[in-house]
Specification:
Elements (H helix, E strand, L loop, with lengths): L7 H12 L14 H10 L6 E7 L5 E6 L5 E8 L6 E5 L2 E3 L8 H5 L1 E4 L2 H15 L6 E4 L9 H12 L11 E5 L3 H10 L4 E5 L5 H7 L8 H15 L3 E7 L7 H10 L5 E7 L13 H11 L6 E4 L12 H5 L4
Parallel strand pairs: 4-7, 7-8, 8-9, 9-10, 10-11, 11-12
Antiparallel strand pairs: 1-2, 2-3, 3-4, 5-6
Helix pairs in contact: 4-5, 6-8, 9-10
Length: 329
């Protein structure tokens, strides 16, 4: 606004209209003078990613494929929790992903690029415009991409998401999920950002973990656990460890005991999730009894264990599946 020859408070007005009132045109900003509105309309535009595909599961999960200005795509998912009644919005931080995890459909797409701050927030605004201020309760950066590889844009987006003049999402209701990018975890710990942290483990030893998640060769488990301990100490918060169970791969008694030993002494919760089959990955889902048995071994050896139900299997809700289904590669 200063560059346009106007007062700084006009910037706050525009910001509030865009992020609190979700305005998509400057002529809606009725507390701005007409000449300023006309100038903004002439010089700028307000755009968000456009929904190009949308599917709803029998279990209530809803998946959205957004197309960006350069024709790249990202996915977002609204996931209902049948026990609590809460809705979680899973959003993307990159178009595609560079990590190449062998069980993830996004990994087969490869990385297209990092998302801008606007493209990250745009996913949230699009859902709010569809469903109103009660569209979701929580946000998790667990869609396409590795959020800690787009650290600055993700943190800037969180600043707007949590701003009292912005979208007013409580920081404690936002989770960053990472494969374990150690420098990013340490930066997050030191940042003062009060969001939650989830770390995808999927194995309790480096050999197996690196076979499932090749990029983790740069982040050995011993060093990763040190970084996580640092985060829990500085933030005084427990971390969530995500563990996808693959039949006959990482779901044995020994695997459970190894996992319990790995996280011993770390304030944490372990989320167990059965593999959601995709065409490009030759893994099988464990039986429910095997999942329950694995959880019973972990608890009480670990502070808290939950079993997350796979959602949206009938609509390709796993990360990257809808983009692949629609022919993007």
């Amino acid at each position: 606004m200063l560059n346009l020859g106007h007062k700084p408070f006009h910037g706050r007005q525009v910001y509030k209209w865009m992020y609190k009132h979700l305005a998509d045109r400057f002529d809606q900003m009725t507390d701005l003078k007409k000449d300023l509105r006309a100038l903004l309309e002439e010089r700028f535009s307000i755009t968000i990613p456009q929904v190009t595909a949308r599917e709803r599961s029998l279990d209530g999960t809803e998946k959205f494929l957004f197309e960006l200005d350069d024709s790249n795509v990202v996915e977002s998912v609204l996931i209902p929790d049948e026990n609590s009644g809460r809705l979680t919005l899973c959003i993307s931080s990159q178009s595609g992903c560079p990590l190449g995890c062998v069980f993830c459909a996004t990994g087969f797409l490869g990385l297209k690029r990092n998302l801008t701050v606007g493209e990250i927030i745009g996913q949230v605004i699009a859902i709010r415009r569809m469903y109103g201020p009660e569209a979701f309760d929580n946000i998790v950066f667990m869609g396409m991409g590795e959020p800690l590889l787009n650290y600055d844009h993700v943190l800037d987006a969180i600043g707007t998401l949590t701003d009292s003049l912005g979208l007013m999402v409580g920081a404690r209701r936002i989770t960053i999920s990472t494969v374990g990018i150690i420098p990013g975890i340490l930066r997050l710990a030191a940042s003062g950002c009060k969001v939650n942290l989830a770390v995808s483990l999927n194995a309790a030893n480096d050999v197996l973990r690196q076979s499932l998640m090749p990029a983790t060769k740069a982040y050995p488990l011993r060093q990763l656990m040190e970084a996580v301990r640092e985060w829990t100490t500085v933030r005084v918060r427990r971390v969530t460890f995500e563990y996808i169970l693959f039949k006959g791969i990482n779901d044995s008694l020994d695997d459970a005991l190894e996992l319990a030993a790995l996280v011993r002494g770390i304030p944490c919760k372990i989320n167990l999730l059965a593999f959601n089959p995709i065409e490009t990955a030759a893994f099988d889902r464990p039986d429910d009894d095997d999942i329950d048995r694995f959880a019973q071994i972990l608890y009480p050896r670990t502070p808290a264990v939950t079993i997350r139900k796979s959602r949206g299997a009938d609509i390709a809700a796993a990360c990257g599946q809808l983009a692949g289904k629609k022919g993007y590669s």
